[in-house]
Design goal:
The complex is a heterodimer. By secondary structure, chain A is of the alpha+beta class. Chain A has one domain: Lipid/polyisoprenoid-binding, YceI-like (Lipocalin, Beta Barrel), CATH 2.40.128. Chain A has helices at residues 2-26, 79-89; strands spanning 29-41, 46-59, 64-70, 75-76, 97-104, 116-128, 131-143, 148-157, 176-185. Chain B has one domain: OB fold (Dihydrolipoamide Acetyltransferase, E2P) (Beta Barrel). Chain B has a five-stranded mixed barrel with strand order 2-3-4-6-5. Classes of the chains: A alpha+beta, B alpha+beta. The A-B interface holds A 28, 30, 32-33, 35, 52-53, 55, 57-59, 64, 66, 68, 70-73, 75-82, 86, 92-94, 96-97, 184 and B 24-31, 60-61, 64-65, 78-82, 84, 95, 97, 99, 101-102, 122-127, 133-136, 140, 142, 144-145.
Protein backbone atom coordinates (compact mmCIF):
# COMPACT_ATOMS: atom_id res chain seq x y z
CA UNK A 1 0.00 0.00 0.00
CA UNK A 2 2.78 2.39 0.90
CA UNK A 3 4.62 1.46 -2.32
CA UNK A 4 1.47 2.29 -4.28
CA UNK A 5 1.24 5.67 -2.53
CA UNK A 6 4.87 6.49 -3.15
CA UNK A 7 4.48 5.67 -6.84
CA UNK A 8 0.95 6.88 -7.62
CA UNK A 9 1.01 10.31 -5.97
CA UNK A 10 4.28 11.53 -7.55
CA UNK A 11 3.03 10.17 -10.90
CA UNK A 12 -0.24 12.09 -10.58
CA UNK A 13 1.62 15.24 -9.63
CA UNK A 14 3.98 14.76 -12.58
CA UNK A 15 1.06 14.24 -15.01
CA UNK A 16 -0.73 17.34 -13.63
CA UNK A 17 2.41 19.46 -13.98
CA UNK A 18 3.03 18.14 -17.50
CA UNK A 19 -0.53 18.89 -18.60
CA UNK A 20 -0.43 22.36 -17.00
CA UNK A 21 2.85 23.22 -18.72
CA UNK A 22 1.48 21.95 -22.07
CA UNK A 23 -1.60 24.13 -21.62
CA UNK A 24 0.57 27.13 -20.78
CA UNK A 25 2.77 26.77 -23.86
CA UNK A 26 -0.05 25.84 -26.29
CA UNK A 27 -1.92 29.09 -25.69
CA UNK A 28 -1.69 32.31 -27.69
CA UNK A 29 -1.16 35.38 -25.54
CA UNK A 30 -2.53 38.56 -27.06
CA UNK A 31 -3.28 42.24 -26.64
CA UNK A 32 -4.60 44.98 -28.90
CA UNK A 33 -3.75 47.76 -26.45
CA UNK A 34 0.03 47.44 -26.28
CA UNK A 35 2.17 50.52 -25.87
CA UNK A 36 5.04 51.72 -28.07
CA UNK A 37 6.91 54.99 -27.53
CA UNK A 38 8.98 56.56 -30.31
CA UNK A 39 11.78 59.02 -29.44
CA UNK A 40 13.95 61.16 -31.66
CA UNK A 41 16.61 63.26 -29.98
CA UNK A 42 18.93 65.82 -31.51
CA UNK A 43 20.88 68.70 -29.96
CA UNK A 44 18.02 71.09 -30.69
CA UNK A 45 14.85 69.01 -30.46
CA UNK A 46 13.42 66.00 -28.67
CA UNK A 47 10.36 64.45 -30.30
CA UNK A 48 8.29 61.87 -28.44
CA UNK A 49 5.19 60.05 -29.70
CA UNK A 50 3.09 57.45 -27.95
CA UNK A 51 0.95 54.68 -29.43
CA UNK A 52 -1.35 52.56 -27.25
CA UNK A 53 -3.11 50.63 -30.02
CA UNK A 54 -0.43 48.05 -30.72
CA UNK A 55 -1.55 44.50 -31.42
CA UNK A 56 0.83 41.85 -30.08
CA UNK A 57 0.55 38.06 -30.05
CA UNK A 58 2.89 35.35 -28.82
CA UNK A 59 2.43 31.63 -29.42
CA UNK A 60 5.01 29.93 -27.16
CA UNK A 61 4.33 26.47 -28.63
CA UNK A 62 5.22 27.68 -32.14
CA UNK A 63 7.84 30.16 -30.86
CA UNK A 64 6.17 32.88 -32.88
CA UNK A 65 5.90 36.56 -31.95
CA UNK A 66 3.97 39.15 -33.92
CA UNK A 67 3.48 42.91 -33.60
CA UNK A 68 1.23 45.18 -35.66
CA UNK A 69 1.46 48.93 -35.05
CA UNK A 70 -1.09 51.34 -36.59
CA UNK A 71 1.18 54.21 -37.65
CA UNK A 72 -1.63 56.81 -37.48
CA UNK A 73 -2.02 55.84 -33.80
CA UNK A 74 1.18 57.71 -32.80
CA UNK A 75 0.17 60.71 -30.72
CA UNK A 76 2.59 63.64 -30.84
CA UNK A 77 2.59 66.81 -28.75
CA UNK A 78 2.69 69.06 -31.78
CA UNK A 79 0.04 68.94 -34.51
CA UNK A 80 2.56 69.89 -37.17
CA UNK A 81 4.99 67.14 -36.14
CA UNK A 82 2.16 64.62 -36.28
CA UNK A 83 1.09 65.83 -39.73
CA UNK A 84 4.65 65.68 -41.10
CA UNK A 85 5.22 62.26 -39.54
CA UNK A 86 2.13 60.77 -41.21
CA UNK A 87 2.15 62.61 -44.53
CA UNK A 88 5.82 63.27 -45.36
CA UNK A 89 7.86 60.61 -43.60
CA UNK A 90 5.77 57.49 -42.92
CA UNK A 91 3.25 57.97 -45.77
CA UNK A 92 0.62 56.45 -43.51
CA UNK A 93 -2.14 56.38 -46.12
CA UNK A 94 0.03 54.02 -48.22
CA UNK A 95 1.73 52.07 -45.40
CA UNK A 96 -0.79 52.13 -42.51
CA UNK A 97 0.95 49.62 -40.25
CA UNK A 98 4.40 48.65 -39.02
CA UNK A 99 4.80 44.88 -38.62
CA UNK A 100 7.18 42.57 -36.82
CA UNK A 101 7.23 38.80 -37.16
CA UNK A 102 9.87 36.93 -35.22
CA UNK A 103 10.88 34.44 -32.62
CA UNK A 104 12.47 34.27 -29.19
CA UNK A 105 15.93 32.81 -29.66
CA UNK A 106 16.15 31.54 -26.09
CA UNK A 107 12.53 30.48 -25.66
CA UNK A 108 13.60 27.42 -23.64
CA UNK A 109 14.83 29.78 -20.90
CA UNK A 110 11.32 31.24 -20.46
CA UNK A 111 9.01 29.32 -18.15
CA UNK A 112 5.59 30.61 -19.22
CA UNK A 113 3.97 28.66 -16.38
CA UNK A 114 6.24 30.10 -13.67
CA UNK A 115 6.01 33.67 -12.36
CA UNK A 116 9.30 35.50 -12.91
CA UNK A 117 11.41 37.78 -15.05
CA UNK A 118 13.16 36.32 -18.07
CA UNK A 119 15.65 38.13 -20.32
CA UNK A 120 15.03 37.25 -23.97
CA UNK A 121 16.73 37.70 -27.33
CA UNK A 122 14.36 38.30 -30.20
CA UNK A 123 15.06 38.02 -33.92
CA UNK A 124 12.76 38.58 -36.84
CA UNK A 125 11.62 40.72 -39.72
CA UNK A 126 10.53 44.31 -39.15
CA UNK A 127 8.50 46.01 -41.88
CA UNK A 128 8.15 49.79 -41.76
CA UNK A 129 7.27 52.10 -44.64
CA UNK A 130 7.02 49.07 -46.93
CA UNK A 131 10.67 48.05 -46.29
CA UNK A 132 11.50 44.80 -44.50
CA UNK A 133 14.70 44.35 -42.49
CA UNK A 134 16.08 41.62 -40.26
CA UNK A 135 16.37 42.84 -36.67
CA UNK A 136 17.83 41.40 -33.49
CA UNK A 137 17.05 42.87 -30.11
CA UNK A 138 16.83 42.00 -26.46
CA UNK A 139 14.08 42.46 -23.95
CA UNK A 140 12.36 41.07 -20.89
CA UNK A 141 9.35 38.86 -20.41
CA UNK A 142 7.67 39.19 -17.03
CA UNK A 143 5.48 36.16 -16.40
CA UNK A 144 2.67 37.21 -14.05
CA UNK A 145 -0.08 35.28 -12.32
CA UNK A 146 -2.38 36.45 -15.13
CA UNK A 147 -0.65 36.97 -18.48
CA UNK A 148 2.79 38.27 -19.32
CA UNK A 149 4.41 41.67 -19.79
CA UNK A 150 6.84 42.37 -22.63
CA UNK A 151 9.45 45.11 -22.36
CA UNK A 152 12.08 46.07 -24.89
CA UNK A 153 14.06 49.09 -26.01
CA UNK A 154 15.87 49.21 -29.31
CA UNK A 155 16.96 51.62 -32.02
CA UNK A 156 16.23 51.76 -35.72
CA UNK A 157 17.64 53.92 -38.50
CA UNK A 158 15.07 55.81 -40.59
CA UNK A 159 17.35 55.57 -43.64
CA UNK A 160 17.29 51.74 -43.40
CA UNK A 161 13.54 51.83 -44.04
CA UNK A 162 13.58 54.35 -46.88
CA UNK A 163 12.43 57.22 -44.67
CA UNK A 164 14.33 60.29 -45.80
CA UNK A 165 14.85 63.21 -43.46
CA UNK A 166 15.17 66.38 -45.57
CA UNK A 167 18.30 68.48 -45.00
CA UNK A 168 16.28 71.40 -43.56
CA UNK A 169 14.98 69.08 -40.79
CA UNK A 170 18.23 67.26 -40.00
CA UNK A 171 18.80 69.45 -36.91
CA UNK A 172 15.41 68.61 -35.40
CA UNK A 173 14.83 64.99 -36.45
CA UNK A 174 17.34 62.24 -35.77
CA UNK A 175 17.99 59.43 -38.26
CA UNK A 176 18.27 57.06 -35.28
CA UNK A 177 14.97 56.52 -33.49
CA UNK A 178 14.59 54.88 -30.07
CA UNK A 179 11.64 52.55 -29.67
CA UNK A 180 10.32 51.49 -26.24
CA UNK A 181 7.88 48.59 -26.12
CA UNK A 182 5.69 47.82 -23.12
CA UNK A 183 2.77 45.41 -23.58
CA UNK A 184 0.67 43.29 -21.25
CA UNK A 185 -0.62 40.13 -22.93
CA UNK A 186 -3.32 37.78 -21.71
CA UNK A 187 -4.88 34.63 -23.07
CA UNK B 1 19.43 106.95 -45.36
CA UNK B 2 16.75 105.18 -47.39
CA UNK B 3 18.16 101.75 -46.53
CA UNK B 4 17.07 101.91 -42.88
CA UNK B 5 13.31 101.44 -43.54
CA UNK B 6 14.11 98.49 -45.85
CA UNK B 7 16.19 96.78 -43.15
CA UNK B 8 13.44 97.41 -40.61
CA UNK B 9 10.83 95.95 -42.97
CA UNK B 10 12.97 92.84 -43.55
CA UNK B 11 13.52 92.46 -39.80
CA UNK B 12 9.78 92.90 -39.13
CA UNK B 13 8.91 90.33 -41.83
CA UNK B 14 11.53 87.92 -40.42
CA UNK B 15 10.09 88.27 -36.89
CA UNK B 16 6.56 87.64 -38.19
CA UNK B 17 7.72 84.48 -40.01
CA UNK B 18 9.57 83.33 -36.89
CA UNK B 19 6.46 83.85 -34.72
CA UNK B 20 4.19 82.02 -37.16
CA UNK B 21 6.71 79.15 -37.43
CA UNK B 22 7.02 78.96 -33.64
CA UNK B 23 3.23 78.93 -33.23
CA UNK B 24 2.74 76.19 -35.87
CA UNK B 25 5.55 74.01 -34.46
CA UNK B 26 4.15 74.26 -30.93
CA UNK B 27 0.43 74.06 -31.73
CA UNK B 28 -0.75 71.03 -29.73
CA UNK B 29 -1.98 67.97 -31.63
CA UNK B 30 -5.67 67.11 -31.25
CA UNK B 31 -6.24 64.21 -28.86
CA UNK B 32 -9.83 63.75 -30.00
CA UNK B 33 -11.55 64.07 -33.33
CA UNK B 34 -13.73 67.18 -33.58
CA UNK B 35 -15.58 69.34 -36.08
CA UNK B 36 -17.51 68.07 -39.06
CA UNK B 37 -16.60 64.43 -39.77
CA UNK B 38 -15.28 63.29 -43.15
CA UNK B 39 -17.74 60.37 -43.10
CA UNK B 40 -20.88 59.33 -41.24
CA UNK B 41 -21.35 55.57 -41.16
CA UNK B 42 -23.70 52.90 -39.98
CA UNK B 43 -21.13 50.69 -38.26
CA UNK B 44 -22.94 47.39 -38.85
CA UNK B 45 -23.35 48.09 -42.58
CA UNK B 46 -19.76 49.30 -42.90
CA UNK B 47 -18.38 46.17 -41.20
CA UNK B 48 -20.63 43.99 -43.37
CA UNK B 49 -19.30 45.56 -46.58
CA UNK B 50 -15.65 45.41 -45.45
CA UNK B 51 -16.07 41.78 -44.35
CA UNK B 52 -17.40 40.87 -47.79
CA UNK B 53 -14.73 42.88 -49.63
CA UNK B 54 -11.81 40.72 -50.82
CA UNK B 55 -9.69 43.89 -51.14
CA UNK B 56 -10.82 45.44 -47.85
CA UNK B 57 -7.22 46.43 -47.00
CA UNK B 58 -7.01 48.56 -50.14
CA UNK B 59 -10.53 49.90 -49.69
CA UNK B 60 -9.76 51.00 -46.13
CA UNK B 61 -6.64 52.95 -47.19
CA UNK B 62 -8.95 55.76 -48.34
CA UNK B 63 -10.20 56.14 -44.75
CA UNK B 64 -6.79 56.22 -42.98
CA UNK B 65 -6.44 59.47 -41.03
CA UNK B 66 -10.01 60.51 -41.89
CA UNK B 67 -12.68 61.18 -39.27
CA UNK B 68 -15.83 59.09 -39.06
CA UNK B 69 -18.97 59.50 -36.95
CA UNK B 70 -21.07 56.47 -36.03
CA UNK B 71 -23.18 54.84 -33.32
CA UNK B 72 -22.47 51.42 -31.82
CA UNK B 73 -22.95 49.21 -28.77
CA UNK B 74 -20.02 48.70 -26.39
CA UNK B 75 -19.15 45.02 -25.89
CA UNK B 76 -15.96 45.35 -23.82
CA UNK B 77 -13.83 48.01 -22.17
CA UNK B 78 -10.09 47.35 -22.53
CA UNK B 79 -6.79 48.96 -21.62
CA UNK B 80 -5.31 50.27 -18.42
CA UNK B 81 -3.63 53.57 -19.37
CA UNK B 82 -5.73 54.72 -22.32
CA UNK B 83 -9.21 53.27 -22.74
CA UNK B 84 -10.26 51.21 -25.74
CA UNK B 85 -13.94 50.42 -26.29
CA UNK B 86 -14.56 47.25 -28.22
CA UNK B 87 -17.74 47.75 -30.24
CA UNK B 88 -20.36 45.42 -31.62
CA UNK B 89 -19.56 44.69 -35.27
CA UNK B 90 -22.37 42.29 -36.09
CA UNK B 91 -19.84 39.86 -37.60
CA UNK B 92 -18.16 36.95 -35.84
CA UNK B 93 -14.37 37.36 -35.92
CA UNK B 94 -14.51 41.05 -36.84
CA UNK B 95 -13.58 43.46 -34.04
CA UNK B 96 -13.94 47.21 -33.88
CA UNK B 97 -11.60 48.91 -31.40
CA UNK B 98 -12.15 52.58 -30.55
CA UNK B 99 -9.22 54.07 -28.65
CA UNK B 100 -9.39 57.22 -26.52
CA UNK B 101 -6.58 59.44 -25.28
CA UNK B 102 -5.51 59.02 -21.64
CA UNK B 103 -7.02 62.44 -20.86
CA UNK B 104 -10.50 61.06 -21.71
CA UNK B 105 -10.39 58.43 -18.97
CA UNK B 106 -12.62 60.39 -16.56
CA UNK B 107 -15.19 61.12 -19.26
CA UNK B 108 -15.41 57.40 -20.05
CA UNK B 109 -15.85 56.40 -16.43
CA UNK B 110 -19.63 56.05 -16.86
CA UNK B 111 -19.44 53.82 -19.95
CA UNK B 112 -20.33 50.18 -19.39
CA UNK B 113 -20.51 47.15 -21.63
CA UNK B 114 -23.96 47.12 -23.24
CA UNK B 115 -24.21 50.92 -23.51
CA UNK B 116 -24.88 52.60 -26.84
CA UNK B 117 -22.43 55.31 -27.85
CA UNK B 118 -22.10 57.84 -30.63
CA UNK B 119 -18.45 58.44 -31.40
CA UNK B 120 -16.31 60.43 -33.75
CA UNK B 121 -12.93 58.83 -34.37
CA UNK B 122 -10.00 58.80 -36.78
CA UNK B 123 -9.47 55.65 -38.85
CA UNK B 124 -6.11 54.12 -37.99
CA UNK B 125 -5.94 50.70 -39.63
CA UNK B 126 -7.79 47.60 -40.72
CA UNK B 127 -5.88 44.49 -39.67
CA UNK B 128 -6.69 41.38 -41.64
CA UNK B 129 -5.17 37.90 -41.18
CA UNK B 130 -2.50 37.69 -43.88
CA UNK B 131 -1.95 33.93 -43.96
CA UNK B 132 -2.89 30.76 -42.07
CA UNK B 133 0.11 31.19 -39.72
CA UNK B 134 -0.97 34.73 -38.75
CA UNK B 135 -1.43 34.95 -34.98
CA UNK B 136 -3.92 37.78 -35.50
CA UNK B 137 -6.74 35.52 -36.61
CA UNK B 138 -9.45 38.18 -36.34
CA UNK B 139 -10.22 41.14 -38.55
CA UNK B 140 -9.76 44.31 -36.51
CA UNK B 141 -10.75 47.85 -37.40
CA UNK B 142 -8.67 50.26 -35.30
CA UNK B 143 -10.03 53.71 -34.63
CA UNK B 144 -8.16 56.32 -32.61
CA UNK B 145 -8.47 59.85 -31.16
CA UNK B 146 -12.08 58.99 -30.41
CA UNK B 147 -14.51 61.53 -29.05
CA UNK B 148 -17.57 60.45 -27.07
CA UNK B 149 -20.48 62.47 -28.49
CA UNK B 150 -23.46 60.65 -26.96
CA UNK B 151 -23.90 57.95 -24.35
CA UNK B 152 -27.14 56.00 -23.93
CA UNK B 153 -26.83 53.85 -20.89
CA UNK B 154 -29.23 51.30 -19.47
CA UNK B 155 -29.57 51.93 -15.74
CA UNK B 156 -30.98 48.97 -13.85
CA UNK B 157 -33.75 50.07 -11.45
CA UNK B 158 -33.28 47.80 -8.45
CA UNK B 159 -36.80 48.49 -7.12
CA UNK B 160 -38.36 46.98 -10.24
CA UNK B 161 -37.76 43.94 -12.36
CA UNK B 162 -35.18 44.12 -15.19
CA UNK B 163 -38.03 44.42 -17.69
CA UNK B 164 -38.59 47.97 -16.44
CA UNK B 165 -35.05 49.24 -16.72
CA UNK B 166 -34.88 52.95 -17.45
CA UNK B 167 -32.78 54.40 -20.21
CA UNK B 168 -30.75 57.53 -19.68
CA UNK B 169 -29.33 59.41 -22.63
CA UNK B 170 -26.46 61.81 -22.15
CA UNK B 171 -25.25 64.09 -24.91
CA UNK B 172 -21.73 65.28 -24.47
CA UNK B 173 -21.17 68.83 -25.76
Amino acid sequence: MSIQKTLIYPSLIFIYCFLFSQKATAQVLKTSTGNVVFKSKTLTEEIVANNSQVSVAIAPSKNQMQFRVPINGFQFKSALMQKHFNENYMETSTYPTGDFLGEIKNINDVKFEKVGEYPVNVAGKLTIHGVTKEVNTSGTILVKTVGIQLKSSFKIKCSDFGIEIPLRSIDSISDVISIDVNCVLTQ
Amino acid sequence: MQKKPIYLSILFFFLICLSVGYFLWHEPAEVKSGGKPDYEKNMLDWVKSLDADSHANQTFLAFIGKSVRFSAVVTEIKGDSSITLQLESGKEGFLVDANFDVSMKKELGAVLAGDSVTLQCECNSLNLPQNTDDLFSEKVMKLGRCNLLKLSTTVPDLSKSHEHDTISVKSIP
